[in-house]
Design brief:
By secondary structure, the protein is of the alpha+beta class. It has helices at 15-30, 43-59, 85-93, 113-119; strands at residues 2-6, 9-13, 40-41, 71-78, 125-132, 137-145. It has a single domain (14-145), classed as Pathogenesis-related Protein p14a, CATH 3.40.33. Helix content is 31%, strand content 24%. The longest helix has 17 residues, at 43-59. Residues 1-10 have low confidence and may be disordered.
């Protein structure tokens, strides 16, 4: 276990949390555009992510929350117990070659929207959680603050 000190509060982080945070921050370092500060882990965002992950697992559906006021990435996988936060984060970062700096449109930008949330310049915190459905799906939810993916803005500026 590793310990990180944020604002004089000691938070115990699992190796999966650390790995997922590393995946996020490496993507932010490599992203085109302005310097992006490293994200820090937020227990309150992780708690919100957990509530939504449980909801998704209970409903057995992959659907974004409409009223969280936070950025959100979703991931699901079936039939295995080894789904990790880092695996989900890598899937989101793998969208990087698709994004070419265009402004976020009204409507569908699913092909790269997970990646742009990961690298969004104004985002400072992330928290993640997962839940398993009775049908064998593992749902991973990441919440971000401040949120990104603002319409008519680009993740590169």
């Amino acid at each position: 276990m590793s310990f990180f000190v944020f604002s004089a509060l000691m938070v115990e982080m699992s190796s999966d949390m650390i790995d997922a945070l590393h995946v996020h921050n490496q993507a932010r370092i490599k992203a085109v555009g302005p310097h992006r500060p490293s994200l820090i882990w937020s227990d309150s965002l992780a708690s919100a992510a957990h509530s939504w992950a449980v909801h998704l697992a209970n409903k057995n559906v992959l659907k974004h929350s409409s009223d969280s006021g936070q950025g959100e990435n979703l991931f699901r996988r079936i039939g295995t117990d080894d789904t990790t936060f880092a695996m989900a984060a890598r899937a989101w970062v793998d969208e990087m070659p698709i994004y070419q700096g265009e402004v976020i449109p009204v409507g569908d930008f699913e092909a790269y929207g997970h990646y742009t949330q990961v690298i969004w310049p104004g985002t400072r915190e992330v928290g993640m959680a997962s839940a398993k459905s009775k049908r064998g799906w593992t749902y991973v939810v990441a919440r971000y603050s401040p949120p990104g993916n603002y319409v008519n803005q680009t993740a590169w500026s």
